[in-house]
Specification:
Rossmann fold; eight-stranded mixed β-sheet; alpha/beta; about 20% strand
Length: about 240
């Protein structure tokens, strides 16, 4: 059955796109992080897709209503460079508070996912908000484990020890922004911290493969990773 979506305001004043599943629930919840282009139609559709799948879903507008076209990479990257990790984590906590206060949401059943810039925030949230997260799925998150981040962001490998929930890490082999060496550094850090993770790399697939509005969209990889993500989220919130 189809869920319903609407714009809401969080306690800190951040607006967010909220998807409510059909039925009274209680339903598990998922926090969604955007790419570097804003809460565009793709993320509105994704929020709806989670609601249709039985998850209360929320996508906080951490870009303050700004949306960039996928062709405007300079604008999107410029905005990304101005982001503050602590502020985004505070907005994330407010988004979780919003959902947990709703009668249709199952208490303590929060998951998190994100894409591109949001894949990095997913990794960070799984550490910074560890006590509130049951499962995570990070899609081609740049900036998690490079030797030096192009945008000047803090490398996150030292946060692995804080994680409590299992995390899926999804990549494409043709993603020129996240080389194989970075996959290795992330895997090494997660294993050394004794954390549960899976890393999946699709051959012949590039960055942004999950977004149907991008040239790099890959339907087969999207469906496979979507199904695996839902399976993890459902298992961890049962």
């Amino acid at each position: 059955m189809a869920g319903s979506c609407e714009w809401v305001e969080l306690s800190d004043g951040t607006r967010a796109y909220y998807g409510r599943p059909a039925g009274d629930g209680p339903h598990p919840a998922v926090l969604i992080y955007i790419e570097a282009f804003g809460v565009n139609s793709h993320f509105e559709n994704l929020t709806q897709r989670f609601a249709d799948a039985g998850f209360a879903a929320i996508t906080p507008d951490i870009y303050d209503s700004k949306i960039y076209e996928y062709t405007d990479l300079d604008g999107a990257i410029g905005h990304l460079k101005a982001m503050d990790d602590d502020k985004v984590m505070a907005q994330s906590a407010a988004a979780l508070d919003f959902m947990e206060a709703r009668s249709e949401v199952k208490s303590g059943a929060n998951c998190v996912t994100g894409f591109c810039m949001g894949g990095r925030y997913t990794f960070l949230a799984n550490a910074a908000l560890a006590g509130r997260i049951k499962a995570a799925a990070s899609f081609y998150g740049g900036g998690i484990g490079p030797v030096e981040d192009f945008a000047g962001r803090k490398i996150l490998l030292d946060r692995c020890g804080e994680m409590q929930a299992p995390i899926q890490l999804w990549y494409g082999s043709e993603d020129q922004s996240i080389p194989a060496e970075e996959h290795g550094r992330i895997a090494e850090a997660m294993t050394a911290a004794h954390k549960r993770y899976t890393m999946n790399v699709f051959p012949g697939v590039g960055h942004g493969y999950f977004c149907e509005e991008r040239e790099s969209y890959d339907e087969a990889a999207t469906q496979e990773s979507w199904d695996a993500m839902l399976a993890l989220f459902r298992a961890c919130t049962a």
